[in-house]
Design goal:
Structural class: mainly beta
Number of helices: 2
Number of strands: 19
Strand content: over 45%
Length: 257
């Protein structure tokens, strides 16, 4: 079968605007897979506005991307628009990471403001803590009992179905790689949804997530400090959810440990 993709991306990175137009083809036949560029009609890269944060902060990376792509696989055709913000901001020895699917700077500014007040020494994790949705979304791929949310199409143009345990859909990050079976739009359900607003709150990751041991930045009253939490016993999951660009997508919600 033949898969075709063409599209364009505007990328603002640390003050430099990069605009890219690309098209390519992937061919699959059993174990055989190949990909190659293919001439296509010109796409005009989308417009993108430079960020204008309300407060000054130091960042290593501040990347905004906005893209549009058209896909074709057999007789299936679909299109998608994407928007991403990735930031790495620093203070002393600490580095906070922010990823989101929109350009609203409100959360990033909140993290930057807290980071400027943060203690540099890691402290013991509180006995009870709330993880912000952006952290929960990054942890979901490592949790059991998650559910794939229905909606949209996968890398073969098939409908993304609600599922749990065995994932029926495939993720294609690029035409250059073979799609892999992966959960889309993950979410986590819990019988308890009430979140204690007075608990310490983890607001940002301080390192990429690769397990259920997560290094985070915590706001605890007037104190701000780094700590490592173990995402094991979950007491509640908030009702409100927001989609985040981790893997094939995760719906983050407040998580009370």
């Amino acid at each position: 079968m033949i898969y075709r993709k063409q599209g364009s991306v505007a990328r603002w990175e640390n003050g430099t605007l990069i605009r890219v137009t690309e098209s390519g083809v992937a061919r699959e036949d059993g174990d055989f897979f190949e990909s190659f560029p293919e001439p296509a009609p010109d796409f005009r890269p989308p417009l993108i506005e430079a960020p204008n944060p309300a407060i000054a902060f130091t960042y290593e990376r501040l990347i905004l991307t906005e893209g549009y792509a058209e896909h074709e696989y057999g007789d299936r055709r679909w299109s998608e628009r994407t928007r991403r913000l990735h930031a790495s901001i620093t203070h002393g020895r600490l580095r906070a990471l922010v990823d989101q699917a929109h350009f609203d700077m409100t959360h990033l500014e909140r993290v930057a403001h807290a980071l400027q007040r943060a203690e540099q020494t890691e402290r013991e994790a509180p006995k009870k803590i709330v993880l912000a949705p952006n952290i929960t979304a990054a942890v979901l791929p490592f949790l059991a009992n998650t559910t794939q949310t229905a909606g949209g199409v996968d890398g073969y143009g098939n409908d993304i179905l609600q599922a749990a345990g065995e994932w029926p859909n495939f993720y294609r990050p690029s035409y250059r790689v073979r799609p892999v079976r992966m959960p889309h739009n993950l979410r986590l359900e819990h019988d308890v949804t009430d979140i204690d607003p007075d608990l310490p709150r983890a607001i940002a990751l301080l390192a990429p997530v690769d397990s259920l041991s997560v290094k985070v930045l915590v706001v605890d009253g007037e104190r701000v400090y780094p700590t490592t939490v173990q995402v094991t016993k979950i007491h509640a999951v908030g009702r409100e959810r927001e989609w985040y660009p981790y893997g094939a997508g995760s719906f983050g919600a407040e998580l009370m440990l």
